[in-house]
């Protein structure tokens, strides 16, 4: 016998669990289905982000950064540590505990908001009168019927052709988060977010890291000034990044991998490493979903086709997050989830793709919102820009972290902020001021006139806004 709900959400990642909670707050009866389990068989809602993505990677980044500070920066503060060592097993244990706390937090939120959770793999069965039948395959098979359905099934790591992940030598982000000892040599294909963050973790812990990037430019999605500053910092740290590398044959052995590639000069090269992380992007996850059973259309990349409001080709079925178009970011998925829940009850949910922030949690951190200088040039938009270095900021000096800058770009005629780009300490936190400013259509003059506490890193944003009008005060 089926269980009936106003809304069935498939997937409990950031898009799914947030959509389920918001819908329940709005008075709907809601079920949420998710297949993730812990190694001991317990439900593990939170999707890729919580289980093998955002959360565990930040835990490892934090641990490895502490290790690096202890080994290279404590002495300048007068702190002596003696011989330094790291227990990677303990580090992984802490990471797993952080993940567990987030899993349990989501289950608590479901209970608090009266969302019924089902642990299993969901698939569409058929359209029925007044809704859609969804089968749940798991320890306790169920049949659910939802008047409305939200697909929030996320994404999977993309593998190289003919080189499947074994998570021992050839690793996705999943396996890269569970390496039990620092490999002597680590190769990474792809210098995007995952490659840079995980490369930073293992470099700090003693691995010789080489990143092969097929594109001729570093971080082309970021502003050129920010990308240049970041590349300079990574080079100084010893993170070897080869641009314009065309990967050819990859051979694996029991405890090593050999990568044949052509460098930017067209020369044949061979790179041998203990392990290889492949971070060449992600693909929409519709494995086992059976969208064809209800007529949900997929595009040529396997993503669910949606309109601007996240409606699929079937009225009553919606899709959000990594499984649809747009940036594969947890916070984008959350905003779409909230917007869809509100649209279902007749409200006007809203997502502004122009103010979605992007963050890379390396050291220095990289964050931006809005358009880059190169995009504005290509679009023929007249603009003015100002930048200010952390080197001239008192708080950054006190922290001992003065790498980087803030760059503010504004419309030449109206002074409306068109983009803010940051590379430096705590960029992930500083970018929020820029997002708020852009949502309220602020001008660079507005930020320049706001009183910022002293001494703070946020003063660099103020000074960059002042620099748009060529009147920075401290540089």
UniProtKB/TrEMBL annotation:
It catalyses: N(6)-[(R)-dihydrolipoyl]-L-lysyl-[protein] + NAD(+) = N(6)-[(R)-lipoyl]-L-lysyl-[protein] + NADH + H(+). It is found in: Cytoplasm. Its cofactor is FAD. FAD binds at residues 58, 153-155, 322, 328-331. The active site is at 454 (proton acceptor). It comes from the Bacteria. It is an enzyme of class 1 (oxidoreductase). InterPro entries: Class-I_Pyr_Nuc-Dis_Oxidored, FAD/NAD-bd_sf, FAD/NAD-binding_dom, FAD/NAD-linked_Rdtase_dimer_sf, Lipoamide_DH, Pyr_nuc-diS_OxRdtase, Pyr_nucl-diS_OxRdtase_dimer. Disulfide bonds join 49-54. The keyword Flavoprotein applies. The keyword Calcium does not apply. GO terms for molecular function: dihydrolipoyl dehydrogenase (NADH) activity; flavin adenine dinucleotide binding. Keywords: Cytoplasm, FAD, Flavoprotein, NAD, Nucleotide-binding, Oxidoreductase, Redox-active center. Residues 5-337 form the FAD/NAD(P)-binding domain. The active site is a redox-active disulfide bond. This is Dihydrolipoyl dehydrogenase.
């Amino acid at each position: 016998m089926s269980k009936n709900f106003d809304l069935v959400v498939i997937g409990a990642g950031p898009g799914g669990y947030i959509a389920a909670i918001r819908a329940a707050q709005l008075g709907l009866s809601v079920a949420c289905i998710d297949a993730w389990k812990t190694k001991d068989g317990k439900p593990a809602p939170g999707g890729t982000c919580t289980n093998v993505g955002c959360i565990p990677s930040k835990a490892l980044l934090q641990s490895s950064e502490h290790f690096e500070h202890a080994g290279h920066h404590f002495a300048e503060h007068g702190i002596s540590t003696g011989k330094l060592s790291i227990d990677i097993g303990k580090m992984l244990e802490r990471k797993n505990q952080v993940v567990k706390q987030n899993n349990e937090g989501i289950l608590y939120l479901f209970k608090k908001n009266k969302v019924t959770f089902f642990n299993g793999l969901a698939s569409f069965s058929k359209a029925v009168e007044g809704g859609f039948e969804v089968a749940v395959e798991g320890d306790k098979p169920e049949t659910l019927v939802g008047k409305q359905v939200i697909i929030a099934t996320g994404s999977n790591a993309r593998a190289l052709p003919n080189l499947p992940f074994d998570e021992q030598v050839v690793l996705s982000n999943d396996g890269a988060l569970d390496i039990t000892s620092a490999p002597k040599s680590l190769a990474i294909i792809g210098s995007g977010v995952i490659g840079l963050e995980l490369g930073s973790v293992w470099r700090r812990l003693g691995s010789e890291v080489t990143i092969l990037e097929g594109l001729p430019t570093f971080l082309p999605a970021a502003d050129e000034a920010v990308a240049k500053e970041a590349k300079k910092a990574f080079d100084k740290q010893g993170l070897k990044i080869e641009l314009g590398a065309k990967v050819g044959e990859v051979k694996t052995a029991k405890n090593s991998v050999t990568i044949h590639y052509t460098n930017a000069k067209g020369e044949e090269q061979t790179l041998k490493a203990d392990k290889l992380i492949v971070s060449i992007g992600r693909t929409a996850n519709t494995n086992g979903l059976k969208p064809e059973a209800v007529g949900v259309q997929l595009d040529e990349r396997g993503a669910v086709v949606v309109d601007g409001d996240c409606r699929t080709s079937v009225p009553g079925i919606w899709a959000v997050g990594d499984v649809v178009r747009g940036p594969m970011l947890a916070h984008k998925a959350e905003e779409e989830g909230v917007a869809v829940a509100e649209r279902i009850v007749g409200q006007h949910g809203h997502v502004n793709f122009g103010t979605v922030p992007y963050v890379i949690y390396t050291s220095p951190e990289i964050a931006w919102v809005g358009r880059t200088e190169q995009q504005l040039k290509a679009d023929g938009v007249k603009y003015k820009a100002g930048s200010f270095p952390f080197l001239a900021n008192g708080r950054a000096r006190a922290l001992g972290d003065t790498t980087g800058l803030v760059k503010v770009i504004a419309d030449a005629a109206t002074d409306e902020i068109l983009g803010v780009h940051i590379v430096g300490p705590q960029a992930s936190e500083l970018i929020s001021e820029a997002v708020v400013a852009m949502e309220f259509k602020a001008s660079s003059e507005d930020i320049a006139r706001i009183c910022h506490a002293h001494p703070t890193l946020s003063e660099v944003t103020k000074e960059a806004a002042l620099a748009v009008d060529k009147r920075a005060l401290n540089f």
